[in-house]
Specification:
The protein is mainly alpha-helical and 305 residues long. It has 14 helices and no strands. It has one domain. The relative contact order is 0.17. It comes from Advenella faeciporci.
Length: 305
Amino acid sequence: MKDLLFSLLPICLYLVLGLLIGKILPATQSARLTRLITPFVWLLLFAIGYKFGLQLENLQNVTQILGIAMAYALGTTVFSFVGLWLLLPKNEKGTTEATSDFGIWHVIRECGIAFAFLLAGIGLAKLLLMAHMNTEWLPSVETFLYILLVLIGIDLVNAPISLKFLQFRTIATPVVVILFSLLGGTAVAWLMDMDIRNGLVLSAGFGWFSLSGVLVTANLGEFYGAASLMTDLFRELLSIVVLFFLGARHPVPAIGTSGATAMDTTLPIIKKITGNHYIATAIFCGAVLSLVAPFLLTWLLTLFN
């Protein structure tokens, strides 16, 4: 509970700071600042890719771990999206502002740019590691995230959050994600002829890779710890793909695939794709999954005792 509060506190503070700045600044200056949201989303993706590249360097049995991680990330992402799409009401739509120009070529271009920045970050990390150069010069992912949260707060002054998010669909979203993530993990474990308990553990991080990596390593060893960490990293990357391709037309299922990251690292992307209307939904879903993840993982790990 304390970890969740510490995670939510800076998010709320930077959003409030943005709201205050937006109230003070003239509308023209606020509009100029909010136009920086898209460039900073690309920088955030570059930083995520850079961090991902550094994580790869520390892995042993890389090929096997990446294969397992991709299978579980894909399984949990697909099951979560399909579960939300099947079970929740279908009358959702992204804002007109968000969906108006999201034709197929626009989506492909946006997704291509996103992956170009991700790959550039990974490539730079690998080059610096190969050259034995300092890898700590780039500002952290959190730095870009907090800048984006301030910009989102400024934008919310002119387009406030709708309180309509407080409805059954919003409350049910994290519950469906939990159930269908575990179902997806079970299905992947069965298909790969792995222990079902491992499948449940690898599907229960909901994208919170720093948590799952530490807990699973401590209980099951470095191999499964690395697989868990990479599964949740891949879930975050796959959720970005889902958001760009499907988020404008199916915002809630796309937000659900972001898991715990919906309240932090993927929040700026959710705002960019779905508009301000779904920001509160994303924060709620991410917060609930962040609260559940440590307890669920801890309980699942006791099944090995």
